[in-house]
Design a protein that fits this description.
Blueprint: E1 7-8, E2 14-16, H1 18-30, E3 37-44, E4 50-57, E5 65-69, E6 72-76, H2 78-84, E7 87-92, E8 99-103, E9 109-110, E10 116-118
Parallel strand pairs: 1-5, 2-7, 3-6
Antiparallel strand pairs: 3-4, 4-10, 5-6, 7-8, 9-10
Length: 119
């Protein structure tokens, strides 16, 4: 297998809060990849122009930034990193607004769903 060239980041890029960490570790365990990672990407779309896309992956790809926070691996591509820097990832069990939520200090406009923003 070829060597993956990725950078090591820190919690200044993204910080995983305890609720999100617990839920992510449980999801990765269920998928049989406890060493896996959460990929966070910023893509065009959503009600404010940009939105988050999250996937469980085996690990970083070339040029990714890997952040280890609360025992969870988070991988972000360099372009998305520009938008999420300083963010926090949380998780809520709320029936209406449940799921993973990114709190992003760079977002000038956010929508009530917490999944879309403008930078």
């Amino acid at each position: 297998m070829s060597q993956v060239n990725y950078k090591q980041g820190n919690e200044k890029l993204i910080k995983v809060l305890e609720g999100a960490s617990r839920h992510l570790l449980s999801l990765l365990e269920k998928q049989g990849r406890p060493q896996g990672a959460l990929r966070i990407a910023v893509i065009g779309g959503g009600c404010s122009g940009l939105q988050y896309k999250m996937d469980l992956v085996d690990g970083p790809r070339d040029r990714d930034i890997l952040v280890i926070s609360q025992s969870v691996n988070v991988v972000i591509d360099p372009k998305s990193a520009l938008f999420v820097s300083g963010s926090e990832l949380d998780y809520s069990d709320d029936l209406q607004q449940g799921g993973f939520k990114v709190t992003n200090p760079n977002a000038s406009v956010t929508c009530s769903c917490g999944e879309s923003f403008a930078a």
